[in-house]
Each structure stands twice: as structure tokens, then as C-alpha cells.
Design brief:
The structure holds two protein chains of two kinds.
Chain A (H helix, E strand, L loop, with lengths): L1 H17 L1 H38 L4 E6 L5 H10 L11 H8 L4 E15 L4 E10 L2 H5 L4 E4 L9 E4 L1 H8 L9 E4 L2 E9 L16 E5 H6 L4 E10 L5 H15 L6 E5 L10 H34 L1 H9 L4 H37 L8 H27 L3 H5 L4
Parallel strand pairs in A: 3-8, 5-7
Antiparallel strand pairs in A: 1-9, 1-10, 2-3, 2-6, 2-9, 4-7, 5-8, 6-7
Chain B lengths: L5 E12 L6 E12 L3 E5 L6 H8 L7 E6 L2 E2 L5 H11 E4 L11 H12 L3 H14 L15 H13 L5 E5 L7 H16 L3 E5 L11 E6 L2 E7 L19 H19 L1
Parallel strand pairs in B: 3-8, 3-9, 6-7, 7-8
Antiparallel strand pairs in B: 1-2, 1-4, 4-5, 9-10
The chains are: A alpha+beta, B alpha/beta.
């Protein structure tokens, strides 16, 4: 049997070599599909890596509370596409953050209450700027660096911290924003700190630090802004107390919300898991598109194989006459399909990583290679080969030898 | 005649095409017994069922009715897989239009049946080499079929049919596409193969070729019209096949002795 398999492999390779251009184009169809899957998976992997590296660098003493939706996956994808801001549904409040801050063994709490407001400076107005209501703790939790000033102050009334890009837009300066004032709602704010440009546009807080202005959370209420608490970061006093502390927080929130469990409490590696983030939605959509292109590639394989079977009707007749069984013929063509699709898969693997590498030059993503991704791509192409090679192979195997021998092209 | 001398035994073979008004018979209640070492020529007008008969003997076609015993085993009970194995090992086929696979070299074409019979690659190529040498085609091993003349192609096809050392060789008008000179060479080759004890069943339209045969069957409308034996059964060539594999000499001597013993008994 092993002998025959080797023969089938040799025959298939010969037949593919005979029609180089045709086979290459067929491979390309599969390659595009596999490449896009590789690309998406590698980028997703790199996003995960970036975030888990952040979590690691902050130390392992962090607990994150996020609003959660207990809905099934499809529904959440649709939600993600239709809702402009999925945190609109958050039922966390600033009061929760205050209550948690009162717990023992909590070293610090940083709520992230996000809203949108109009900022007016002397010369310029920004109609929609991201406003984050938080506490001084955020700078520690996210490891934020300031190029000037301090991260908020309880002593200075109406203090604010501004991201570099936003500062450039509002004040026209990326260096000397500290001390300048701007108006938000009815209140005047004074900039006490200017953030350094961040290298992490992707972060577990889901905040665009360069393009936001940060104020103390209680000011948001005062200026009457519409905001949502999209996350509460809690720093524990010691690492060992994490699970106990998360239970305590759970109990606390449970009683505060009368058992309405619309939030999740995460710590350790779970924080980096971007479940529920927009990335997940986008990447699952892209995967679906890539899957479609794989199916199209598979149809290409099937098409070429059907042509091949028709062209070689007489050969099939001869082979059967000299002793090939239907199984032999089936395997011969199935091998051909497999070689085409696995070849395409390998080509796609290389193509996908080359593209991922090119993307990494201009973005902070680093191409991420894992055995899972290699396995998925090779596995998918084998499955595609068998799936789409089966019909032509069966068709070839079922040919009547007598009629096939009479066939002239 | 001992039972193991009978290689093909067909009883009441009928092949019917179509139903109702379009019903027609390629073979009608056809009986045939072939002994080892016979060289049978089947003649007859077009459409008398010659090729259908060859296809049924060669296990490529199934009869609508009747029983066919090949080497004492009923073919109707064999699975398709088994039939393919039998085709690869026991039956060699030669066609009018050679039917070599055009994109395979001479050597690869000859090796083909051995591949499906399950021989190792080394064994296959050694054997193919020997057979090609026998047909003086050794230096053409790596030629492609289109680089050969018709006569040479047919000799390659004959080599292919012989490579697994089959018990029966079926030839469907092997000289039909050849000029008279090539025809003669091919027929001489077949004659030589026959003299080595192979059973050959050949369909032809050319009455001049019947001089090579030990038995001539004329067919008409799917039945035997005349059946003439030109050589006595006992004078058929001894079934000593061309052996490429190493033989168990002792076992064969024993078999030969016991075989002779049986024949003598029957004569008495």
C-alpha cells in the first residue's frame, strides 16, 4: 500500500509538472485564501502579545473590571457592527469605583469613564474630543510617561492632562501645553500634564492616549457630560491576594447591582484576552472573508481537476485495462488535488508572513508565528484538497474502462 | 485433459444491450472452453460480438447472463478490487491502437501493470528491462511513444502485456493499424510467446493470420459459427512460462512430475 501511495504521489507530481502554468494558478487561488487567514491570525496574535506584554510590564497585581454582555457570539458580532460604541451598555458606575477603593488590600483604583466633549482654546475649537474621567492611578496602571507636568492633581482645581496629538491640535504645540487653559462645557480647565507620545495605540484600557484629554472622574458629572464607565482598573496591594480580592469585588458589585451580572472581573493573562473588543469583531469578519476566498480557491482546484479528468479519460481507460482498480484511480486524482492545495497552502503561508512582515514595518504589529497558525493553514489546505478533490476523483474512478478506451480527443 | 489445463470456461454467456424495442445481443448463449497453451483466433463480421467477448474475458465487462470461470474461479463472485488485481497479474491486453500512455516513457508504460500488481520499484524496472530486451527495444527505454514507429509501439504494448507474466494474453486486432512488414514482426513475436506456453486469444479480420493459430473460431451474431482446431490438444506447447523471478526448482519439478502422472492416467 505504501508502495502504491508513493506511485500515486509520483504520478500526481508528474501530471502537475506537465501543466505548470495551470497548476500554479490553481495553487495561487488557495494561496490567497491561506495567506489572508495567516495574515489575520498573525496580526491577532501580535495584538494579543502587545497587550499581554503591557500587562506583564505593569506587574501582576492588576484586576480589571469590564462590562460584559452575556450574549452569544453571532449576536455580539452584529452588536459590534451596529453599535457605534459598544460601551454604551456599560452598567458600571463611578460609585462602583469609589466603593471598590474602600476595600482593604486595594492599593489604587482607576476608573475609565469615557465621553465626548467640545474643547475650546484661545484660537481653536475641537468639536469632538475624547474625554476620559479617571484618577491619578491610571498613570501607574498603564505606565504612562509625561513629558511635562504631573498626571492630574487633587490640589489644583479643574486640572487636566492632555495627549500629545490632541495638544498639537488644540494649542498648536506638542511641547509647551502645561499651564494653558481650555474650556469644556461651562468649566475652564488648566493643563497640568502633557503625555509623551505613546508607543501603544493598542492597550488593555482601550484608550487612545495620544488623542484624549484626562480629567478627574468627578468633574465629568459636574460639567454634565454624557459618559460611560468602560473599565475600572484596580491595583492590589500584593499579588497573592488577587483571587481573594477579585471575589470580594465580585460580592461587592453583586450586591450593588442586585445580582445583575453584566460585568466581568479579570486578572492575570485574562486581561490581555481581547474578547469583546472591536478587534475580535473585525478579525472574525475578516476570517469569514478569507474563508470565502479559500472556498473559491477550492472550487478552482475542483475545476482544474475536472478538466484533467476529462483530458485523461483515455489514460484512465488504459490504466484500468492493465489492472488499476477504481481505488487506484481515485487515489491518483485525490493526490493531485492534495498536492495542489497543500502546495497552495505553503505558498500562502509564505505570502501571508511576507505581507505581515511588510505591515509590521509601518505599524507597531510584529508578525506572530506559532505552531497553531502553521497547523491551521496546512490543515485547512489538506481539508480543502480532500473536500474539493473528492468529486473529480470519484468521477474519474467511476469511468467505464471500455468507453474510456474508445475516447479520442 | 486435466481440469487445471482449462483456463477459461464460459457457459451460456449472454450480453444484452438496451431494453424492449432497442434490445440487441452482442453475445447469445455463448459457450467457450480454452485450454492452457492455445492460440485462438476469433474472426467474424463487424458487430458479431468479438470485442465484447474479449472485454468479458478480460474482466472489463460483465455478462448479462451466464457463468465465467477463470482458472476454476467464478468471476461473477469477485469484487471489483479483486478483478483489478486479476487483470494486473493474470491477463495481458494488446489493443489495435496500441494504447500506450503518451506522456510516459517506454519503460514507464511497460512497468504500468506491475505497479498495480504491487511489485517493488527495483523489481518492476528489472523485469521491464528484461522484457524490453526480449523485444529488442532496450535502447528505446527512455523514448516517448510518439518517437517510435507503429510497429515499435505495438511491440512495446506487447511487452507491457507480458511484463507480469500473465496466463492469458488478449489481443484485439493487434495488427490492424500496422503495415504488412510490421504485422509480420508482431505476429512472429506473438508466435514466439505462444511457443513458450502462453495462452493467446486474438481477434482479427485478416484470414491470412490464421496460420499462426492452433484454433480458429468464426463468430456470427454473438454465437460460434465454426470452431476449427488445427493442432491436437496434446500437441499444444508445454505451459512453460517465461520466468523472471527466481523459481523454487524443487517444487516445480514435483509439480511437473505429478502433472505428467495425471495425464498418463487419463490417456489410459
Amino acid at each position: 500500500m505504501a508502495l502504491l501511495l508513493r506511485t500515486h504521489y509520483r504520478l500526481a507530481r508528474e501530471s502537475i509538472r506537465k501543466n505548470r502554468t495551470r497548476s500554479f494558478l490553481t495553487c495561487l487561488g488557495i494561496a490567497v485564501g491561506v495567506a489572508s487567514i495567516i495574515l489575520i491570525m498573525s496580526l491577532m496574535g501580535s495584538i494579543n502579545n502587545v497587550i499581554s506584554a503591557q500587562v506583564k510590564s505593569m506587574g501582576a497585581d492588576l484586576i480589571v473590571i469590564r462590562p460584559a454582555q452575556h450574549v452569544d457570539a453571532v449576536e455580539s458580532v452584529i452588536d459590534g457592527l451596529t453599535a457605534s460604541n459598544r460601551y454604551m451598555t456599560s452598567n458600571l458606575t463611578l460609585t462602583d469605583a469609589e466603593v471598590i477603593a474602600g476595600l482593604d488590600s486595594v492599593a489604587g483604583v482607576a476608573p475609565i469613564a469615557a465621553g465626548v466633549a467640545t474643547l475650546r482654546a484661545e484660537e481653536r475649537t475641537i468639536p469632538t474630543a475624547n474625554v476620559i474621567g479617571t484618577s491619578t492611578e491610571l498613570a501607574r496602571v498603564q505606565n504612562l510617561k509625561l513629558s511635562n507636568g504631573i498626571f492630574l492633581s487633587d490640589k489644583v482645581e479643574n486640572s487636566a492632562v492632555i495627549g500629545k496629538a490632541l495638544s498639537l491640535e488644540l494649542f498648536g504645540t506638542g511641547t509647551e501645553a502645561v499651564g494653558k487653559t481650555f474650556a469644556m462645557g461651562e468649566e475652564k480647565f488648566i493643563v497640568v500634564g502633557l503625555l509623551e507620545e505613546t508607543e501603544d495605540p493598542i492597550n488593555f484600557n482601550n484608550v487612545d492616549f495620544d488623542n484624549s484629554v484626562f480629567v478627574r472622574a468627578d468633574y465629568l458629572k459636574r460639567i454634565g457630560l454624557n459618559y460611560q464607565v468602560q473599565q475600572i482598573d484596580v491595583r492590589a496591594e500584593n499579588t497573592g491576594a488577587l483571587s481573594k480580592l477579585s471575589e470580594e469585588i465580585g460580592d461587592l458589585l453583586n450586591s450593588a447591582k442586585n445580582g445583575d451580572k453584566n460585568y466581568e472581573i479579570l486578572y492575570g493573562d485574562l486581561i490581555s484576552h481581547p474578547a469583546g473588543s472591536m478587534f475580535m469583531v473585525v478579525s472574525s469578519m475578516l476570517t469569514v472573508v478569507a474563508g470565502v476566498s479559500l472556498i473559491v480557491g477550492g472550487i478552482g482546484v475542483m475545476n482544474i481537476l475536472l478538466v484533467s479528468v476529462a483530458e485523461r479519460t483515455r489514460e484512465i481507460g488504459i490504466r484500468k485495462a492493465v489492472g488499476a482498480s477504481s481505488m487506484n484511480i481515485l487515489m491518483q486524482f485525490l493526490f493531485e488535488a492534495m498536492i495542489l492545495s497543500v502546495g497552495g497552502g505553503l505558498l500562502g503561508l509564505i505570502l501571508g508572513y511576507v505581507i505581515a512582515f511588510l505591515i509590521s514595518i509601518v505599524t507597531p504589529f510584529a508578525p506572530f508565528i506559532s505552531w497553531q497558525i502553521l497547523g491551521v493553514s496546512v490543515g485547512t489546505s489538506v481539508v480543502i484538497g480532500i473536500l474539493f478533490g473528492m468529486y473529480p476523483a470519484i468521477k474519474a474512478a467511476r469511468k467505464n474502462p471500455i468507453e474510456s478506451l474508445r475516447y479520442y480527443r | 485433459m486435466s481440469p487445471q489445463d482449462v483456463i477459461i470456461d464460459m457457459k451460456g454467456i449472454t450480453k444484452r444491450y438496451g431494453f424492449g424495442d432497442t434490445e440487441s445481443y452482442a453475445l447469445r448463449d455463448f459457450d467457450l472452453t480454452v485450454k492452457r497453451g492455445e492460440f485462438i483466433m476469433i474472426m467474424g463480421p463487424s458487430g458479431c460480438g468479438k470485442t465484447t467477448l474479449l472485454n468479458i474475458i478480460g474482466l472489463l465487462d460483465k455478462p448479462s447472463l451466464g457463468a465465467y470461470f477463470l482458472n476454476g474461479k467464478e468471476v461473477g463472485r469477485m469484487t471489483e478490487q479483486r478483478k483489478a488485481k486479476v487483470r494486473a497479474k493474470k491477463i495481458g491486453v494488446i489493443f489495435q491502437d496500441f494504447n500506450l500512455i503518451s506522456h510516459l516513457s517506454v519503460l514507464d508504460n511497460v512497468v504500468l501493470p506491475m505497479t498495480y500488481a504491487g511489485f517493488t520499484k527495483t523489481h518492476r524496472e528489472l523485469q521491464a528491462d528484461k522484457v524490453l530486451e526480449k523485444f529488442h527495444l532496450q535502447e528505446k527505454e527512455y523514448y516517448m511513444p510518439y518517437q517510435l514507429s507503429g510497429g515499435q509501439q505495438q511491440r512495446v504494448a506487447i511487452a507491457r502485456s507480458l511484463v507480469t507474466n500473465p496466463e492469458i494474453i488478449l489481443a484485439d486486432e493487434p495488427t490492424g493499424n500496422l503495415d504488412s512488414r510490421s504485422s509480420r514482426i508482431v505476429m512472429e513475436e506473438l508466435k514466439e510467446i505462444h511457443s513458450e506456453g502462453n495462452t493467446i486469444i486474438m481477434v482479427t479480420h485478416n484470414p491470412a493470420l490464421t496460420v499462426y493459430a492452433t484454433r480458429v473460431i468464426n463468430m456470427l451474431d454473438g454465437q460460434i459459427d465454426t470452431d476449427i482446431k488445427t493442432v491436437e490438444d496434446d500437441d499444444l506447447p508445454q505451459p512453460v512460462k517465461i520466468h523472471f523471478r527466481q523459481r523454487n526448482v524443487l517444487k516445480e519439478v514435483k509439480e511437473a512430475l505429478s502433472g505428467k502422472g495425471e495425464e498418463k492416467e487419463e490417456k489410459k
